[in-house]
Description:
By secondary structure, the protein is mainly α. Helices cover 71% and strands 0% of the residues.
Amino acid sequence: MAFGRFLVRGAGGVLLAVTLAACGSSNRDVPLDNFSAEEIFRRGEYELETSRRAGTAVSYFSEVERLYPYSDWARRALIMQAYAHHRDREYEEARAAAQRFLDFYPADEDAPYAQYLLALSYYDQIDAIGRDQGLTFQALQALRAVIERYPDSEYARSAVLKFDLAFDHLAAKEMEIGRYYLRRGHYAAAINRFRVVVEDFQTTTHTAEALHRLVEANLALGLTDEAQTAAAILGYNFQSSPFYEDSFRLLNGRGLAPEARGDGWLSQVYRQTVRGDWL
């Protein structure tokens, strides 16, 4: 990680940071422009390592940028600002710093890390399924940028894993809303939500349940062809799933069996996923 490369290394670096700390504690009116870019940067590192909050560290890194804007230390200070803000869960500020780094240093070796931090600033705010999913979409876009722009970086694999989790999160949101409608007898609205999962999120862990709920909702509306087709897809792809057993019992109780019938959207899904007919 970029942060690790910038930490104080060796006794000399520690001494420099401690010396500057002592100067700051004895005379806080000494202007920072009396110090070199490295001295100010090391002070920022020292504050970052020894303080629970990163605000003071960020101020030092900002001063490096202000006083020595075209130096290598300014570049390092900018990525450290992004890291420090993210550590303190100041996600908007972390995004802003990471984006500035990408704007100023798009070809730098730390650009993959800046893009990854930008993605994390969205991803780490994804929590309860019930929240607005705008952050999830933004996290997916930023994670995709890491994967596509920096496929050989050390952050690509982590980005792929987080992308899959965020994608699954969106499917979970659709399922939550679909179940809500289903429980209240709004079957058409429920079907629309479960259809989104089957068509747009078919690689997630929610597909089997979505197909089962389609069996339930379509049976409730008397749409037996659709219910049987949903069960047929479920049986082909998830035969060992408890959801298939539940769907089979529902159909069997009405003298029906899982099989593709009719020419609706589920029949098209059946032709594509089971028969491999995409035309």
